[in-house]
Amino acid sequence: MSIAVARRSTLPGFGLTMGLTLTWLSIIILLPLAGLFLKTFELSLDQFWGIVTSRRTLNALKISFGLSFAAALVNLVMGTIIVWALVRYRFPGRRLFDAIVDIPFALPTAVAGVALTQLFAQKGWLGAPLAELGIKVAFTPIGIFIAMIFIGIPFVVRTVQPVLIDLDVEIEEAAASLGANRWHTVFRVILPSLIPALLTGFALAFARAVGEYGSVIFIAGNLPNVSEIAPLLIVIRLSEFRYADATAIAVVMLLASFLIIFAVNRLQRWAQIRIPTH
Amino acid sequence: MTIEVKNIVKKFGSFAALDNVDLKVAQGELLALLGPSGSGKTTLLRIIAGLDWPDAGEVSIDGENALARGASERHVGFVFQHYALFRHMTVFENVAFGLRVQPRAIRKDESTIRARVKELLDLVQLDWLSSRYPSQLSGGQRQRIALARALAIEPRILLLDEPFGALDAKVRKELRQWLRSLHSEIHVTSIFVTHDQEEALEVANRVVVMDKGRIEQIGTPGEVYDDPATAFVHGFIGESIVLPVDVSGGSVRLAGQPLNIAANGAASGASKLFVRRHDMAIGPAGSGSLEGAVRHVRSFGPIQRAEVALSGGEGKTIIEIDAPRDRELQAGEIVSLQPRRYRIFAAQD
Amino acid sequence: MSMQSGLAPATELRTYAPAADIAIDALPSGSERARPLAGTAAGNPRTEPAPVRLIIIALAITFLSVFVVLPLVVVFAQAFSKGIGAYFAALTEPEALAAIRLTLLVAAISVGLNLVFGVIAAWAIAKFDFTGKTFLITLIDLPFSVSPVISGLVFVLLFGAQGYWGPWLQAHDIHVLFAVPGIALATVFVTFPFVARALIPLMQEQGTQEEEAAISLGASGLQTFFRVTLPNIKWGLLYGVLLCNARAMGEFGAVSVVSGHIRGETNTMPLLVEILYNEYQFVSSFAIASLLAMLALITLVVKTILERRLDEGQQPSDH
Description:
With 278 residues, chain A is mainly α.
């Protein structure tokens, strides 16, 4: 067999594996995506706008994005505390707690949903004492908030952990030798160098919470305009065969999420320039 | 097995890794491809092996067009710089690999394979390691196993890519001699790539000096050392003193002063004078072309190495010369220097 | 579901050093400094004063206990609240058995398909150079960035009664939605990236030298893959399969959208948990949930073991 002197690769199989990969990718991902785009473009701009700005939709989006943001903030703060304790301190059960951090990521969402509901229901182990204090968690927006915190826990911790571990202790010693007290060192030297990782973790937690379904719908009241999350509204519209509405909401969610991630990426890059990690 | 390479061109983007390279390798010879990084030597080796493909040109092995086949069909043994041993296989399984993947039709039976592997491990004197894993071996041991593995398939050519580059100096020297004696035992046509000129000169039958994708000179180690064809070869091999000179009308000037040496047909214009350190004859002041003050002398063994500041041109040119120790030089002494053997190359080479 | 945002692939899956004290000490680059310091006096420049440390530890433990430990405990507490007999009775109900069977089937299909294609994709991406590689990897990661509900939505748009192919499917009496094929499709979609994401960085790190050596020794492409590449990636492969399986069995949102919730036929275990819970059949619901929780715990344990294996593999040995 005579082959013209042309570009060839050393290892065989490129053509075949590439072809198979592209085929599989097209069938499983591109085709469904195409369907989504097609459906979106069936709507005129006015129709699209009408669906998206309807009262119920707007409220659902507000609830989804607003509570996700708040929950991600909580995870930002608590995640920092947790990762600090896990990396820098020794205490009994530390290894166990480190392993536990992954559970919200590994646990099926439906299981998380029913467990959290049971826990915070009026007669639940935590719900009961809270009810005494007059705080109702289950079937209210607070419940949604709690569930979103739950699923976001691993993101900040796991993203920051390797960075914190790799931090050069000499930097802290330098700061101390220059007269900084511990407070200064932590807040002016250490935490700033963690900012890119913190932002990434925040973005991941945020994005996850926005799209979350299983963990949230049990504990949410699912009352339209009050405690209805956007993913649930999509499901309802689908069951009503209002495909266009469902698609419109989905597209808004996708766009908003991508925008936020993009903004956070920018912030990260800015932080990296101002406070390079190395 | 003879190899012939013609007009090979290989570009990476706009960078020409190989720029019209021609080479003929004779049966049974041990050839070195010598050059600095980026000279194209590894690229050329990989093209011969079939691990890379040229943009233009021909490669023939024993008269057949080698480019029609891939690496798995060229029957070439390749030894990688970082050994590339299969980390999850024992030494024995590594060496046996080439024999075990042969097509059913020509594959030998297991006992034959086992015997051959043992033979090869004996050849490289590492039979006692056959059940170890690569991670348990030293660098030198790994390289010998890599060689045994390549030899197992009875290749018609053996190609080695900086085979000793990853080893430390003492092991390198030992393996160099070992490779040479191995080659004289098994006589496989072999090409090895190195950037270490001492290695190339010590081991190879012929040396191919390369720079920037081109062959600068092909010759025996002696030819390449004593008769460098270009300024690059002279500068790359051995230590040289380089002085900027001007050639006009058959006379050679350094910083305006004429030197008492023949131009030997060098073209007129700005040029460079290359002299080996040990090719400067030393005499009393006034007897030679160059004059200078000895600044510092180091003696070791039969040689003394002197730093001399040349008189001409503000005394800022400092050169190092090697002289025998029959007359000990003193710091501060004024000496005269006359190049015994030298080359003049045009300045832009 | 998680977003890619400038992290290396597989970061979310393996973002941490093994949770072992030894491991921290074993890290390179001057790791003494990473060693936690106990019982140092206030004024020590390398750590916070003791009361602060205590508060931080207390906060961390409390938070994790309330948000993670308690929910887990609740699952098992509820499942066994009426005794072991009731527990096993719930698990052996016909609906439960059907759900378990369906979950296993769908997981097998997803893992099987994504294993094969994950390996193929990883080979194409890691062992060759070509333009558009980043784009391709981004596409592969896409299911991660998308809400599960939207993952289900896209299939409804294609196969639903009012979807693009809906009428055609109905005319030929082919059921994709509200049947096993739809569930399988949606699950394959959401578990698509796991194997590839685990393999690609691993294979990239391992480079192509061993494969080139095998080729130069006369091996064919397949021989090279099975004898040289596969043994080197086996831990990464297991890791990807493990996570793929966990997600496949636990997927709720996407499957919920496409399944139609037909009792005994199109309910996976997570869906059954939902149905039983909404019917106030708490013991049954949590019994099934407890199986899924155990799956999650086992997954985590095996994952930690595999991570340790993988980290060991990155130690400079050969090369």
